[in-house]
Amino acid sequence: MKQRGRHRRRRRGRALRAFLSGTALALTAAATMISASQATVTDDGPGDLKPLTTSAETGKLRLTENRVPQASLDRLAAGMGRPVGVGAVLDGADRTLRDAIDCSATERRALPVSPAASRAYCWNTDDTEGWQPGAVTTSGDADDDGVWGSNRVILSGWSRSGGTAADRGLARVGFVNAGDLNHLTYTWALLAVPVDEGRDYRGLVSHVSGMVWYQDKLLVTADEGDRAALYVYDMNRVQRAGVAGAAVGRVPGGWSANGYRFVLPAIGSYELSGDSDAPHPATVSLDRSTAPDSLVAGEWTLDDGDRKARLWRYPFSTAPGHEGLLATSATGRVRASEAYETKVTGVRGVLSYGEEWYVTRAAGPRDKQGTLWRQDTGKSDDNKDDNNTDTSEAAVCGAEETHSCWSPQTESLSYWEATGEVWTQSGRTLFALPLASIDRTTG
To answer: What DSSP assignment string belongs to 206-260?
Structure first.
């Protein structure tokens, strides 16, 4: 019976790959209908990234680390019960993601035209209605072998866009069991922030547009208007919420998490510098090609704006007892180790690996698709004339040779180094594709 089930999964896998290839062809055909006024011709590009080197520029990127007191975390755990780990959450995964073949035509339009997705899934409509999708990170970020314990995991961030005023903006994470890529199951956990010295917690109110799981920590972006740039969660400190209901926090009879069985209370945050022009890191990703590993960050810009977006990185700490956290000075300051400007407008996701930077642009008001640009820092050729040489590249598709070939709205990119795949999501569609295919189509 096991053998027969394995053969069925293999046949379904082959069918899905063929289906995705057909979907890419259909999207390419649709791209040919983009008018010349909407097309971005192939000789237009944002060029190399421009380094930011002055203290006035890099000082704005400085963060300050703030930790929730251990006594507060211990008090919360004493009230809620012993924390659990990722494995316990996955054991409660009782929902199933739909394969691409079962996605609607509208959901499949969220896939890129070129390069084509190699895997695609869709979230269920009944538990995502009124929620806005955001960032993706995986156990490939958490550990270089791609496995957390014995589990392969995908985390997907969402924020409440509808509902009552009380739960508007609440943030949650989908824990996806990715042990069998032909059958993804998931469950939800609410993101929270301890209050009253650990006697209670409130829901994190933020659009989760950026998220990185590194070692045992989960770093999540905070919205504009919050002095915190990032909130930090400990993946070994997931708490069970025993009271079912819409309330968040301590309630008569126990603890509630907006109807979810699990809640992650923050263990700390990183606060922006006091500079009025300090950029919020709206999108983040992990780069394992640096020494030490680093957190890549970028700010969002308007689709039709002319302000250049800043991209930068923070090194992760290698100090004992500081695992999964950013490197800090003795005073708790975090400084960017590298910073650039890009001319790409409408910036959403950013990824860096090796000498390359990958920046996604959201679809404009008249575009069906977004754009993914591959840029470099210009370090490889010190004699290059930046005014005459454009090394930025993007895929080309459609009869009009447009660069609008990417997914319409991918807010983050996550590179699973052990498999060579990049994971992201757009709308209710979660998908992956090899980084090599991105390099090939943007070469």
So the answer is: S----EEEETTEEEEE--TTSSEEEEEEETT-BEE--B-SS-EEEETTEEEETT-
CA distance 261 to 253: 15
- Nearest-CA neighbor of 230 among 239, 238, 218? 218
* The residue to which tokens 């005023």 are assigned: 165
Residue 132 has, within 13 A of its CA and on its CB side, a CA count of 19
Using the predicted structure, report yes or no on whether residue 10 has a pLDDT greater than 70.
Answer: no
Name the region of 203 (left: φ>0; alpha: ψ -120 to 50; beta: rest).
beta
Look-up of token digits 């896939």: 111
Burial 251-267 (b: 16+ CB within 10 A, else e): eeeebbbbbbbbbbbbb
Query: Which residue type does 82 have?
Result: R
pLDDT at 165: 72
Q: If you write DSSP's letter for every residue of 106-147 in order, what string do you get?
A: HHHTTS-SSSPPSEEEE--STTTTTEEEEEEEEHHHHSTTS-
How far apart are alpha carbons 333 and 314 in whole angstroms?
A: 11
Question: Looking at the DSSP assignment, which residues form a beta bridge with residue 155?
Answer: 137, 175
**Distance between CA atoms of 128 and 391, rounded to whole angstroms?**
40
Name the phi and psi angles at 436, rounded to 5. Answer: -60, -35
Among all chains, which residue has been given the structure tokens 């907006």? 258
Q: What pLDDT, in 10s, does the model give residues 160-202?
A: 998 777 788 999 999 999 999 999 999 999 999 999 999 999 9
Amino acid at 111: L
The neighbouring-strand residues paired with 312 are 297, 339
H/E run at residue 361? strand 356-361
Task: Confirm if 293 and 286 have CB atoms less than 8 A apart.
Answer: yes
Report whether the peptide linkage leading into residue 292 is cis, meaning its omega lies within 30 degrees of zero: yes
- Whether residue 391 is predicted with pLDDT greater than 60 in this model: the reply is yes
- Taking the C-alpha atoms of residue 337 and residue 313, their distance in angstroms, rounded to an integer, is 6
Give me the pLDDT at residue 33, please: 44
State the DSSP H helix or E strand holding residue 203, giving kind and residue range, or none if neither.
strand 200-203
The strand pairing partners of 352, in sequence order, are 357
The rounded Cα 96 to chain-centroid distance in angstroms is: 21
341: CB partners within 8 A, 6+ apart: 49, 50, 52, 308, 309, 310, 311
CB 89 within 8 A of CB 181: no
